[in-house]
Amino acid sequence: MHTEGVPDPLHTGSVESPEDRTYFRQVLGNFPTSVVAITAGMPDGRPEAMIVGSFTSVSLEPPLVAFLADRSSRTFPRIRAAGRYCVNALAADQETLCRSMATRGPDRFDGITWRRSPLGNPVLDGVVAWIDCELEDVVEIGDHHLAVGRVHALRTESVKTPLLFFRGGYGDYFSSTSVLLDRLVGW
Fold this sequence. Notes:
Layout: H1 21-28, E1 33-34, E2 36-41, E3 47-52, E4 55-59, E5 64-70, H2 76-82, E6 84-89, H3 95-101, E7 114-116, E8 122-124, E9 129-141, E10 144-156, E11 163-166, E12 169-172, H4 176-185
Antiparallel strand pairs: 1-11, 2-3, 2-6, 4-5, 5-10, 6-9, 7-8, 9-10, 11-12
């Protein structure tokens, strides 16, 4: 509740200032996002990966999903050229894997166990779920590429909780319903 004339402690910037990048990012940080690894098998057999926090479903008919890749990404052009990718929904216990794959360099897959998807893309061990896609379209929008994929195959791998990004940090999600059911059932 806000009282007229009393400063609002939660309001730290102008409502009309989306041009203030710091404030814009601060406000958007209050919207939790999933953390996924986008992986692709390259023609030479090497795996590629990038971490994104902007994955969404697009359409049920046809089955389409999408993610956003920063236009400055060095990895996205290689994934785009492959024409296919796998979305790996990281589990809450995979923060270290996430940080490793978010670095630059060829050793992102060192020590990481994975298998090939039906389209030949890496499916990481321990993920919550994966979705194998053929690249349908790429749209340049703002400072990002919107990559739309047609779903070829998908699977839930575990009942683990997902890795989320919220207010500048990683964490997981527990629904109050799940906690209540776990207590009632004794899990």
